[in-house]
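Researcher: Structure prediction, please.
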Amino acid sequence: MSLASPLFKNWLSHVGPDRAIEALTDLIDAGAVFVVDAAGRILFWSRGAEKLFGWSEEQVIGRPCGEVLGSGYAHDPCGLAEVGDIRARSVRLWKRGGGVVASYRTARAFFDAQGRFTGAIERFQPESLASLGVLEEDVESFHGIVSRDPAMKNAIKIIRNVAETEATVLIRGESGTGKELVARALHQESHRRDGPFLAVNCAALTPSLLESELFGHVRGAFTGAVRDRPGLFQKAHGGTLFLDEVAELPLELQAKLLRVLQERTFMPVGSDRAVTVDVRIIAATHRSLREEVRLGRFREDLMYRLRVVPVFLPPLRERRHDISFLLWRYIERHNLRGPRRIERIAPEAMRRLLDHAWPGNVRELQNVIEYAFAVGRSGELNLEDLPPEFREATGSSTSTAETLSTRTFKRRDEAALIQAALEASGGRLEEAARQVGMSRATFWRKRKKYGL
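Model: Predicted structure follows.
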C-alpha cells in the first residue's frame, strides 16, 4: 500500500502524524532519528537519539544540529542543502560530556516547489558495538577491566571499594579471566601505588626455587648460592606482592607465608636473622581453597588469612552480555592499527563465536581476533577467518537456534541471547530473529518482554 493512499491518509489523520512518527522511530533499534528544519534546527529527537548521543529532547529541540553534534554540521543545515539525500555515510559525531560516536548516516532532504531546502529526516546507525560502547551507560570500566555483565560489574564494584584498604584479597577465576589485571588495579588504586608491584606464579617453580624466589637466601645457603639474594617479599617492601596460583604453594612453604601475613617477618633461606617487611598480599587461584583444605592440600588457617576479601571473576561463557561487546571492542582496537579494517561479522561466524565455550576466556577471545586480522583481508569477518576449532565445531558447537531448542534457558540467559543477537545484527530485527531461530513476531514479543 502506498503511503499516499487515501486509506493511509485517513488512518494517519486519526492517529496523528506526531504519534505515528514517534512510534515509528521507537521501532528502530540501536539507532537515532531526528528531524531538522531549513535552518538546521532540531524539531524532533527520538529516544534512540537520546540514548546514542546523551542529549534529552528538552535539551536539543530548537538548537542547530551543528551545535549539538559537532562542527561538521555547522556550515549548512546538517550538510543536506547541497548534496540532498545521504545513504550510509560514515561519520564521527559528538557525544554529550565528551567522546565521539562512530555512525552510519542516512538522510532524506525535502525541498519546496521552488527547490529551496525545507528540512530533513536523519537516521544514525552505530557502526559497531564499540560505537555503542562509548555510551558507557551500562558498561563498567576500571583499569582495563570492562564489562556489561551484572556479575562482573558487581566484582568490579568490590574491587573499587577494597582497593582503598589494606585487606588481603583472594581472586578466584579461570585462566584468562583477568586475575593479574585485577591485582594490578588493586595496587594502582591503593596508597601503595608508588611502591613496587611484583608477581610470581606459584605453580611455575619447584618448592626449593619458589622458597628462594619468595624469601631470598644468604650466601652459602645451598650449592650455587655465592652471594646474598633478596626475595620478592623484600623487593616488594612498601608495595604489593601478587601470588598467582597460590593453591599450588607447597605445604612446607604455606607455614612460612602464614607467618609473613601474621607477623610481617620471615627468615631468608639459610639465615638465622628475621627480616621485617611491609607488603600487601594479593593472591589468586583457579581452584577452590575450601576444597583444597578438605583434601588436606592447603592449610585452613592460611586460607582464612588469604581469603579476607574474596573476589570471583566469572568465566566468559557465563558473561553472554560481554561476548559480542568485547569482540567489537578488540576489533575496533585492531582497526586502528591497519591494514585490515573489519566493519561487520558474518552471521555464521557470529553464531560460532557466541556458541563457543571460551575455555581460555578473555585471553582466548583476544587471540581469536588477532588471528582473524592476521589471516583475513576483507571488511567482513567470515567463518574462514576464525581458528580451525571454530570451523570444525559443527558437531560440538551448536547453532544459537539449536541451543535454544535443546536447552532450557533461564530468563536472563534468553534475554542475554536476544540482546547479543540484536547487537550482532546492528539492530536489524529480521536478521537478529534469524540468528536465534525465531520468527520475527516471536523475537519482537520476547524483546519487549525483557525490555530490550
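Model: The chain has three domains: 6-127, 150-312, 317-449.
Researcher: Thanks, that helps.
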